[in-house]
Predict the 3D structure of the following.
Amino acid sequence: MAAPIKTFTVEALSVRVYAGQEDLAADVAREVQAHLQQTIATQGSAAAIMATGNSQIRFLETLVRLGGIDWSKITLFHMDEYLGIAADHKASFRRYMRERVETLTKPKAFHYLEGDALLPIDECERYTDLLRAQPIDLCCLGVGENGHLAFNDPPVADFNDPRLVKIVKLDDACKWQQIKEGHFPDLASVPPYAITLSIPALCAARKMICIAPEKRKAAPIKAALQGPRSTDCPASVLRQQAHCTLFLDTDSAALL
């Protein structure tokens, strides 16, 4: 059975480090499975926010393969989408979630952010209403190479944001990550704006699971855990979240 090779806390945040991505994904999947099972047993249903990105793929594959979850009692949300992008675009987060989660698990509902909505501000309000009507039991998220959470890049992140959903301009570091991950061919192809859940919206979940493997995450993880707690590294806010666990591998923990 996969187990962390090291555990520690930074302020209120629990941190687990694993020998490799397979062990990390296996343990996270079991943790998520147990939490969703318990939540459904206690209240009859559950709601979760899921993250996209290359760092989440192995976890999602492991979770779906693990089974043991009554997805028909789970309502799902996701946390961001490019503004103006079609749902069938290869980089669309709706497509990512539809192919990797929805079609394989058939949840009770999957509420998608419509990035190509004709009225984006109205779309933010629609999704805000959905979130306000549905308490979130679990938020699974990652950390960007610039330390972002969802699309809360350093220039637009706000730890006390009054909004749950907003339109943001993506910074170049974020765009370059999307290119390096193979989602777009060049900088001009990356949409300049996105719709994202705010940091308070993510942190409002009853339980948070942050999955951040790979060597390219080592610098933002060091900044998040050992640098100033500020929007210069939005992930540093996780140090204040006692209901969050951060899952790392030896590569992403290499600079700690």
